[in-house]
Amino acid sequence: MDAKAHLKYARISPRKVQIVCDLIRGKDTKTAQAILMATPKAASELMLKLLKSAVSNAENNHNLDPDNLFVSQTFANPGPIQKRMMPRAQGRGYRINKRTSHITIVVSEKE
């Protein structure tokens, strides 16, 4: 049985989140939490909160043992891009893309 947690419209680039996703994929939840607490990336704080939510979902909604869980899937998909303009020389305007992410963590029980 799988339990999921989603975070939509996070104001961080998916490219930055995917680095942290690769660190915890396949690890058990206790190890993943320790890795996220020690990682000095902006996405690790969001991912830690999301991991705790996924473990709680597994425990409360699917009656799974939280000590037996591991991170089976984690990924970050691009969300909508907020487009902004930065004034430049001679009346030009350069575009700034403020990217967003949809982050998903799936935890499963070990066999």
From TrEMBL:
Transmembrane portions of the chain: none
Gene Ontology CC entries for this record: cytosolic large ribosomal subunit
Known role: The globular domain of the protein is located near the polypeptide exit tunnel on the outside of the subunit, while an extended beta-hairpin is found that lines the wall of the exit tunnel in the center of the 70S ribosome.
Name the UniProt record assigns to this protein: Large ribosomal subunit protein uL22
InterPro entries named in the record: Ribosomal_uL22, Ribosomal_uL22_bac/chlpt-type, Ribosomal_uL22_bac/org-type, Ribosomal_uL22_CS, Ribosomal_uL22_sf
Similarity comment: Belongs to the universal ribosomal protein uL22 family.
GO biological process: translation
Organism from which the protein derives: Sporobacter termitidis DSM 10068
Pfam families, alphabetized: Ribosomal_L22
Summary of subunit composition and partner proteins: Part of the 50S ribosomal subunit.
Lipoprotein is among the record's keywords: no
PANTHER family listed in its UniProt record: CHLOROPLAST 50S RIBOSOMAL PROTEIN L22-RELATED (PTHR13501), LARGE RIBOSOMAL SUBUNIT PROTEIN UL22M (PTHR13501:SF8)
Record's keyword terms, sorted: Ribonucleoprotein, Ribosomal protein, RNA-binding, rRNA-binding
Gene Ontology molecular functions: rRNA binding; structural constituent of ribosome
